[in-house]
Amino acid sequence: MNKHADFIQIPYREMYDTFLNILLAHNFTRERAEQCASIFAINSAEGIYTHGVNRFPRFISYIRSGYIKVDQTPSRVGGFGAIEQWNGNLGPGPLNAIHASDQAMGLASQHGIGCIALANTNHWMRGGYYGWHTARKGFVFIGWTNTLANMPAWGAVDSKLGNNPLVIAIPYKDEAIVLDTAMSQYSYGALDQYHSKNQQLPVPGGYDEQGNITQDAGKILVSRRVLPIGYWKGAGLSLLLDILATILSGGLSTHEISKKEAEHALSQVYIAIDIKKLSHFPAITTSLEHIIHDYHTSQPEKGKDIRYPGEHIREIKEKNIASGIPVSEKVWDEIVALAEGH
Amino acid sequence: MNKHADFIQIPYREMYDTFLNILLAHNFTRERAEQCASIFAINSAEGIYTHGVNRFPRFISYIRSGYIKVDQTPSRVGGFGAIEQWNGNLGPGPLNAIHASDQAMGLASQHGIGCIALANTNHWMRGGYYGWHTARKGFVFIGWTNTLANMPAWGAVDSKLGNNPLVIAIPYKDEAIVLDTAMSQYSYGALDQYHSKNQQLPVPGGYDEQGNITQDAGKILVSRRVLPIGYWKGAGLSLLLDILATILSGGLSTHEISKKEAEHALSQVYIAIDIKKLSHFPAITTSLEHIIHDYHTSQPEKGKDIRYPGEHIREIKEKNIASGIPVSEKVWDEIVALAEGH
User: Fold this and answer.
1) Given this model, what pLDDT does residue A84 score?
2) Whose CA is closest to B291, among B279, B308, B305, B278?
3) With bands split at pLDDT 50, 70 and 90, how would you rate the model's confidence at A3?
4) Cα B334 vs. chain centroid, distance in angstroms?
5) ipTM, 2 decimals?
């Protein structure tokens, strides 16, 4: 365990084992505990700390409060051909999400394209995980979740929209191109980080209390008016993603979730496409390589790297596996306390 | 015909008849000429002038140059279950798009969800038209097109990405909620308009030649560096939409289209979902009404209206039908000259 400033570096295996033991102590079966620990540890190793190690204590607290039902698994409630509705039964979000992704791939294998709409599930942590999971098996993935209200409609001052992350993943050379993007320009977690480091946001992220667009994270944390990506465009996209998740699954919408005492019982959509079934499948690899090659020949701004979404993940992971996953001491202490049964 | 400044107002019927006669003179069959004239006239009546009347002269010039083949219709080249590949055979983009939307609905009726990937087609003008078309028949629509390169990758100065408009439409009360959004914050057409009126853009739209983000449309027209929606987020989304359109259809990607002498032979995706087939279908209407009601109770910024995507369309259309569709005299003169056989 290396230490610099108030960050420590936890070896991947130690982090995984710690998660595993805590989950086992919270009545997960071994298989489900392993899968869940692995998702949290990989999200952390791949640099998505906000939806890995940093979020683990809240995951456990939601289990203790009964929002997340450890032993529940999704059940099929309806369907027609290539689209099915499932009830997540408030099971752990990451396990439900893997289940839904696998079911979507099953439908896609049968019908070319498949869609699972999942109601009554829990926070999936990092949506990109299911994009990688699905794309590595050779399927295109398009999926999204709704959230509680945390972003105003365009022209409004109060939050009625979720930031509703959208994930698109495409198989590429035994790996994947994976976009995982919330509809807000910055998450509240990111705003907190910039604010605590006293850094200006790289691009405008919301409004101050006077209604001016600002790059000052602290002012946005006060006004609670974050900016959607593309202003009116991302606000519209967020609304439609919520509507689709709600009506396709028959589950709760952002405004209904927001009435609850904590963010749970979400609605999600998982679409998979089995590109191996396309008659021109062999040509896809070459076509994709040409697109990425052309993209990489972009003329960069001074000092900039031109990367496709997900391209940097492997590098981050290798670094974190080699030298440990950076975690704030405070967060790790909290997790160790959970492991000790507190 | 009323006149104010250099804009005139053309009655809907006069505009439709003018388009119709020009299309008939360019060897469209009567049925196809009527459908195509209607799409251009409705796009104009609904306020999307850039992809209606203002674009009509270029549509005719592409026919004359042979990029658009008037008599060609799409042909099915492959498929598996609920996903099919079609070749647009360079037929007129709007007619190919209606055909693909109808085929997607056909697949959705059979399989719940259906996907048509269309290669080798032409500019569909206003993507939202096919969203309305599909949603009014009771289907969810998710569709997008690629374009030639007109936007830089994030961190780059030269354009390698298209602005690849994405359309999502949802049936609502015999009407629809329709989002139609390009991946750039502003189109070049919009930048031209702000520049010609000497108006500042409402939000940043691109870079000046020195690499600073600016709201000055004129400077962006010089640098050719438009901003993606949400900065790195919209750039990523644009790349993935191009890849999906290309690999699912087996057609050309943005970088291949950009090598051609004019923007044609595009790739598009049309996904339809038959929500009437869902077992909880009757509950969808109520659920949707609750979401929209909650959305409309947003607390507006002073002077702002809170509208969902597409909500303003009916009003614009009623106004334009009542008092004529505003067109610049220059554009209308050009169209009248085409009608006179020039």
Assistant:
1) 98
2) B308
3) very low
4) 22
5) 0.97
| Cβ neighbourhood burial of A245 (10 Å; 0-12, 13-18, 19+) | buried
**DSSP assigned state of B78:** E
Percentage above 70 pLDDT, chain B: 99
CA–CA distances in Å: residue B57 to residues B61, B62, B106, B333, B336: 6, 9, 33, 10, 10
Of the candidates B293, B288, B294, the residue with the CA atom closest to the CA atom of residue A149: B294
A239 to chain B, any CB pair closer than 8 A? The answer is: yes
Radius of gyration of chain A (CA): 20
Answer yes or no: do A300 and B155 touch at CB < 8 A.
yes
Percentages of chain B per state (helix, strand, coil), in multiples of 5: 45, 20, 35
Decide if B51 is catalytic. Answer: yes
Give the pLDDT confidence of A215-238 residue by residue, as tens digits. 999 999 999 999 999 999 999 999
- The predicted model gives B199-221 an average pLDDT of 96
| pLDDT score at A311 | 97
Angle at B87 between CA B85 and CA B93, to 5 degrees: 115
Measure Cα distances from B75 to A237, B85, B245 in Å: 32, 9, 17
Interface probe with B: pick from A240, A252, A269, most Cβ of B within 10 Å: A240
Work out the end-to-end distance of chain B between its first and last CA atoms, rounded to an integer number of angstroms: 23
Q: What distance in Å separates residue B139's CA from the closest CA in chain A?
A: 11
Mean pLDDT of chain A: 96
Considering only CB atoms, which chain B residues are within 8 Å of A81?
82, 110-113, 277
Across B3-12, average pLDDT: 82
Residue A5 has pLDDT above 70, yes or no: no
**Strand A7-10 relative to strand A325-328: parallel, antiparallel, unpaired?**
antiparallel
Q: How far apart are CA B264 and CA B248, in angstroms?
A: 18
Residues 18-57 (A) with a CB less than 8 A from some CB of B: none
Whether residue B299 has pLDDT greater than 80: yes
| Structural domains of chain B sorted by starting position, each given as residue range(s) with its CATH number in brackets | 2-64+312-339 (1.10.1530.10), 76-183+228-276 (3.30.1370.60), 185-226 (3.30.60.50)
A114 contact residues in B (CB cutoff 8 A): 113
Cross-chain residue pair A291–B82, CB shorter than 8 Å: no
Other Cβ atoms closer than 10 A to A129: 27
Which residues of A are known catalytic residues? 51
The Cα–Cα gap between A114 and A131 comes to: 15
How would you list the strands of the sheet with A2-4, edge to edge?
A: A2-4, A7-10, A325-328
Mean pLDDT of B65-88: 98
Catalogue the long-range contacts made by A53-56 (C-beta closer than 8 Å, 24 or more residues apart).
Answer: A53/A10, A53/A15, A53/A325, A53/A327, A53/A331, A53/A332, A53/A335, A54/A189, A54/A327, A54/A328, A54/A331, A55/A125, A56/A19, A56/A22, A56/A335
Rounded Cα distance between A281 and B276, Å, is 32
Q: Put residue A125 in one of left, alpha, beta given phi > 0 → left and psi -120 to 50 → alpha.
A: left
pLDDT in tens, B133-191: 999 999 999 999 999 999 999 999 999 999 999 999 999 988 999 999 999 999 988 99
Q: Measured between CB atoms, which of B158, B279, B300 is closest to A298? A: B158
Residue (of A302, A249, A295, A24) closest to A115 by Cα position: A249
Q: How confident is residue B2, by pLDDT bands cut at 50, 70 and 90?
A: very low
| Nearest to A145, CA basis, from A190, A188, A100 | A100
Please, are residues A133 and A96 in contact by the beta-carbon 8 Å criterion?
Answer: no
Question: How many other C-beta atoms lie within 10 A of the C-beta of residue A199?
Answer: 12
By the 10 Å C-beta count (0-12 exposed, 13-18 middle, 19+ buried), A12 is classed as middle
Q: Spell out the residues 6+ positions from residue A188 whose beta carbon is closer than 8 angstroms to its own.
A: A150, A221, A226
